[in-house]
Amino acid sequence: GAVGDVRLVKADLCFRAGWNPQSRLLNPALGGGALLDVGVYTVAWASMLLGPKPVKMAGLAHIGETGVDEQAAMVLQYEQGRLAVLCCAVRTSAPHESLIVGTEGSLRVHHPFWHASRVTLAQPGKPEQVLDLPYEHNGYQYEAAEVMRCMREGRTESDVISLDETVSIAKLLDRIRGRWNLKYPME
After folding, report:
1. C-alpha distances in angstroms, 111 versus 14, 53, 145?
2. Are strands 56-63 and 6-14 parallel, antiparallel or unpaired?
3. What is the pTM of this model?
4. Does the N-terminal or the C-terminal CB of the chain have fewer CB atoms within 10 Å?
């Protein structure tokens, strides 16, 4: 609640891969492109913070010479005018940060936002607070622990991210690609 009601989420996950048209990143036969490789993380982040079903969306992509999206930017609008501004790329580097802006302040999630160990809280009229949130190993152990917990309890899905939310994110990615007329050979 330190930032109040979340109104805006910004996130980027952009990196510059070497040029290899046969790689999984650039080959359409392998489902290549920025959106499905790394853009899904920014979309899932927005879903976690704002909900899985935006009411409007817009986006642009650069479709490279292999026919996949090399970089893209998307704006997703949610109820009450809340927005997510997201970028992804496999041929352009960016800071890998996120900014969560609310009615009472903002939270900067430092590099790399998907497993950050530091955030900065900014509130009007107060000094910024840097919060260190260390984690063990590479951070992925939390996912493994959640899978093990669900299996031990005989669950087929997690409370952290439901099957419905996962399917909603996949459908949203397909809608975004559809706006770019980006289709893969197997479709």
Report:
1. 12, 26, 24
2. unpaired
3. 0.93
4. N
